[in-house]
Amino acid sequence: MSREYAESRIREALESCKGNATKARQRIIAQLADDHKLLMALARPHLTGIVSHAVNRVVSRSEIEDSPPPEQPKTLDMPPQTFGQEILQALQGNKSATFGLENDLPGRRRGQASKNHIEAMKRIARKHDDDKKI
């Protein structure tokens, strides 16, 4: 019954607005203030989501209010003259850490290709050259 009531009121609004959906929406919203039955017919399918959103919002606000204030930041344990020197050196590239080598580990060098790998690459190159000739 309520769904049919809402649909009939929407049809009436569309007819009175000559099919203009935007104006019909505005008219329906204006009618909702006075027509509680229409409001319930439109909102009933969405009430569970509306209520759960409202409850979650209140719960999250109360958790924020109940949480202790954040700790004060720790003071710097270095003299003000040296503050930011590491950042400047990193930007200049002087003795800056390399990703993966932060602990001063020696860099990995590529090993020499194995004999099998070299032969495989030569076979692929030959096959590719043979395909081009055909």
Description:
This protein has 134 residues and is mainly alpha-helical. 61% of the residues lie in helices and 0% in strands. The chain has helices at residues 2-16, 21-32, 36-43, 47-66, 85-92, 115-133. The model has no long low-confidence stretch (mean pLDDT 82).
Global mean pLDDT: 82
Helix content: 55-70%
Characterize the biggest β-sheet: none
Q: What does the overall shape look like?
A: flat
Using DSSP, what is the number of strands? 0
- Class per helix and strand makeup: mainly alpha
SSE topology string: HHHHHH
Please report which band the strand proportion falls in: under 5%, 5-15%, 15-25%, 25-35%, 35-45% or over 45%. Answer: under 5%
Rg, alpha carbons: 36 Å
The CA-CA distance between the termini, in Å, is 77 Å
Task: Please mark out the parts with pLDDT under 50 across 5 or more consecutive residues, or reply none.
Answer: none
What's the tally of helices?
6
TL;DR?
The protein is an all-alpha fold. The protein has six helices and no strands.
Structure keywords:
single chain, flat, 0% strand, 6 helices, mainly alpha, 134 residues
What's the arrangement of secondary structure elements?
Elements: H1 2-16, H2 21-32, H3 36-43, H4 47-66, H5 85-92, H6 115-133
Helix pairs in contact: 1-2, 1-3
